Amino acid sequence: MYAKLHQSFYYFSLHLGTTSICISKPTTSLYPSFIKTPFKPTTTLSVSATLIPSSPPPSNQQLYQPFRPPPSPIPSQYKSLDAPSRLEILANRLGLWYEYAPLIPSLFQEGFTPPSLEEVTGISGVEQNRLVVGAQVRDSLVQSNTDPEIVASFDLGGAELLYEIRLLSATQRSAAARYIILNKMDAKGAQDLARAMKDFPRRRGDKFWESFDYVLPGDCLSFMYYRQSREHKNQSESRTNALQMALEVAESEKAKSAILKELEGEGEGKERAEGETADGFGSEDGERKIVEAPWECKGQGEFGVVVAEKAWERWVVLPGWEPVLGLARGGVAVAFPDARVLPWKANRWYKEESILVVADRGSTEVKADDGFYLVTLDGAGGVSRLKGVRR
């Protein structure tokens, strides 16, 4: 009898939806006292949170709240002032900008909105935000032990400059603030500097990235100008101007050296008026090789072994595209190390990568008014765009 009762309480599990009740095995041994003492199994009850209904938000609750930066501590001289007095200080710009800027969020807490505050004080909503954020950036400069002379340089009209470096870290802000003051930058310059410093780590792997120092604001700005120079056609005035700007703001010698290589035409992205096959098209030897390359090759035998009319060192396998298949005889492939050397139209893409140009040596006449032709001009070879020329 005891054994049967014990078995009936051995283990019991019940699942109801997401609610589970588990009764585990009792530790009481089989003694007569088991009948006299009521059995109290160990019970574990877990209730899913999904059974507890969440209180719906009030129907009149405003789900979207405009961003408002946390209020800065109000200066001691303003703490005892009431709302009208604070409004008067803002309306008349009494004091330094970073001193009365904390009054703006304090008035927001009393029910004012940016439009209503603008109506009373004449400070636009954009300027309100700039003052508040600029004051917070200034506080972070003080807390990060930035040179007091640098911080003091922003006392007059510095809100607009400090606002532009708001997205930088505390360390970056200190370096950027110093660079802005020493180089007498305006708001646009501060904006470009902050963008360059923020964007620099994301450009890891770009050409010459390792030549610029991340901790130097000037190098970050220089790298941005260098990247902009690569968006222009090589040997163009816009590209040269961008490289010169990059050289002017660069701080490290390594960065200056990399930019000088570009300016002197020694860099990897140097514009070439010639492509290359073997030793280089544009040299006498390169031109000769294009002329002497086999004019015809074809597959022979059961396995289609390629046989050329004469021996040649370099070959390339091309897809069976229709223009390639149309080359009966005289096709030649010319390798260009930089695709930007091709005279694309202005609305075409520009990308620094190797490109293979397939030319038809059997065609010696200009058959299209607008096309690309492999030509030799004054001993220099290259690809030229001939427009409106037929001869």
From TrEMBL:
One of its GO terms (biological process) is ribulose bisphosphate carboxylase complex assembly. GO terms for cellular component: chloroplast. This is Rubisco accumulation factor 1.1. Keywords: Chaperone. It comes from Populus alba x Populus x berolinensis. Residues 263-275 have a biased composition (Basic and acidic residues). Residues 83-142 form the Rubisco accumulation factor 1 helix turn helix domain. Residues 50-69, 263-284 are annotated as: Disordered. Residues 154-263 form the Rubisco accumulation factor 1 alpha-helical domain. Residues 286-377 form the Rubisco accumulation factor 1 C-terminal domain.
